[in-house]
């Protein structure tokens, strides 16, 4: 038996590529997106009641990840990328069915679209459904997960003076919290855990239409070098 689903909308997000997206929602509150709803879900009737809800569950398609029945075990980055665990014990993007779920903050409701923050979604992500976060049921006090006890360790992020000025310029142009977004994403250290780059190695990523470049002046410390339009 198979089932076929049509997206109810698409996410236009700050994350133009997968690299440096936080591993879960809420880790970067400055990460924003617009969820564009497709007809007929863009009608006010479908959104009625959302004004009384702060957070939403998004069910979405990992449209940029390989999936299928061969993915029985995965290597989560949080375990260093070496240790394998069963796919159902992980939030890996490589799954039997490419379905993701994220709790996101609903910032505003506009005709035919929802403004969101704290997202972990790639630009262009198709959304299958939206459900309200229900605090009394979804926040489980005695819950534990021994494979993911703590949020990712954070490392210090500093700025070159030029990059700080550039981030300010881009923030004004885009009307987005660019400096906060960069800091909140880079402090989670996006590079693979096994890499130990010297200070000469420069990393880069695209947020919105901005190229962000940084390096590791010493292990465990990031310095933002430049923030320039694409
Ligand atoms: N919160 C979701 C969940 O638990 O199902 C996603 C968790 S998954 C570990 C988060 C990663 O998925 C991000 O760091 C990003 O690299 C990747 N990602 C986000 N949107 C994606 C998409 N549309 N297709 C493929 N990968 C995506």
Could you explain how this protein is built, in words?
It holds the Pfam family TrmO_N. Residues 5-142 form the TsaA-like domain. This is tRNA (N6-threonylcarbamoyladenosine(37)-N6)-methyltransferase TrmO. It comes from Pseudomonas jilinensis. With 230 residues, the protein is α+β, with helices and mostly antiparallel strands. The chain folds into two domains: 9-63 and 98-138, YaeB-like (Elongation Factor Tu (Ef-tu), domain 3, Beta Barrel), CATH 2.40.30.70; 157-229, 2-Layer Sandwich (YaeB-like fold), CATH 3.30.2310. The chain has helices at residues 44-47, 135-138, 161-174, 178-186, and strands at 9-13, 32-37, 55-61, 73-74, 85-86, 99-110, 113-117, 126-132, 157-159, 202-207, 210-218, 221-229. It has a six-stranded antiparallel beta barrel. Strands 9-12-11-10 form a four-stranded mixed beta sheet. The protein is globular. The termini are far apart. 24% of the residues are buried. Bound molecules: S-adenosylmethionine. S-adenosylmethionine (SAM) is lined by residues 18, 21, 23-25, 62-65, 91, 93, 100-102, 120-122, 125.
Structural features:
YaeB-like fold; globular; binds S-adenosylmethionine; 6-stranded antiparallel β-barrel; 230 residues; 4-stranded mixed sheet; single chain
The CATH superfamily of the largest domain turns out to be: YaeB-like
CATH class of the largest domain equals Mainly Beta
Q: Structural class per helix/strand content?
A: alpha+beta
H-E order:
EEHEEEEEEHEHHEEE
- The unreliable regions are none
Note the gap between the termini.
Answer: 45 Å
Number of helices: 4
GO molecular function, one term: tRNA (L-threonylcarbamoyladenosine(37)-C2) methyltransferase activity
Protein name: tRNA (N6-threonylcarbamoyladenosine(37)-N6)-methyltransferase TrmO
GO biological process, one term: methylation
Domain TsaA-like: 5-142
